[in-house]
Design goal:
Layout lengths: L1 E5 L7 H11 L4 E7 L2 H13 L3 E7 L2 E8 L18 E5 L9 H15 L7 E4 L14 H9 L3 E5 H6 L10 E3 L1 H8 L4 E4 L1
Parallel strand pairs: 1-2, 5-6, 5-9, 6-7, 7-8
Antiparallel strand pairs: 2-4, 3-4
Helix pairs in contact: 1-2
Organism: Desulforamulus reducens (strain ATCC BAA-1160 / DSM 100696 / MI-1)
InterPro entries: DsrEFH-like (IPR027396), Se_metab_YedF (IPR019870), TusA-like (IPR001455), TusA-like_sf (IPR036868)
Protein name: Transcriptional regulator
Length: about 200
């Protein structure tokens, strides 16, 4: 069976959701998910790879044809999160400053927060949305601390829509681009979530 999904012009997280639904509707076969931007390509490709499917990507005139094979020895795998002794933690950063008020004070407090965070067990994940994506760019005042957390096993996810909005995708210095579906899955999972 062959299914073709047209995700041209769709914003996050629709290409991932549409691809997921198409794969759920077939027992085995091939799904071709067509996207027209690199953020959607990265998000769909990561989703199907994490689910354990075979995937191949071809580009044609700025459009990406993501071929996914279900079946034929490609049973999906369950991705099990790593749980620390104290339970796994997810931090959601919705801003590049800590608290409301003076922006320069908020930046100082954010540096202090990340320095303090290095003294605790590393969180499983840090999710960056809205202006929080600025924490993972090349000019970030906390880039050094975030890199140390990555060395300890923390995964950094930066919202692709937010990076596009602030025109920062090319400046992402640590972590990877994500989508709202993956963010929601991590926020509603078994981990304890702390919003900053």
């Amino acid at each position: 069976m062959l299914k073709e999904i047209n995700n041209r012009g769709l914003a996050c997280p629709h290409p991932v959701i549409n691809t997921k639904r198409a794969l759920e509707e077939i027992e085995q076969g091939t799904v071709i998910s067509i996207v027209d931007n690199e953020v959607a390509l990265e998000n769909v490709k990561r989703f199907v790879e994490n689910a354990g499917y075979q995937v191949k990507v071809e580009e044609n005139s700025g459009e990406f044809y993501i071929t996914i094979i279900k079946g034929e020895g490609t049973d999906p795998v369950e991705v099990v999160p790593v749980v620390c002794e104290t339970g796994s933690m997810v931090y959601l950063f919705t801003s590049n400053t800590f608290g409301n008020g003076a922006e320069d004070l908020g930046e100082i407090l954010m540096v202090s927060f990340f320095n303090s965070l290095l003294e605790k067990p590393a969180p499983r994940m840090i999710i960056l949305v809205n202006s929080g994506v600025r924490l993972a760019i090349q000019q970030s005042r906390v880039l050094e601390q975030i890199n140390k957390l990555v060395e300890q096993g923390t995964e950094i996810l930066a919202c692709g829509t937010c990076l596009d909005y602030y025109k920062l995708k090319d400046q992402l210095a640590v972590g990877r681009v994500t989508n709202m579906l993956e963010i929601l899955e991590n926020l509603t999972g078994r981990d304890k979530v702390i919003t900053i």
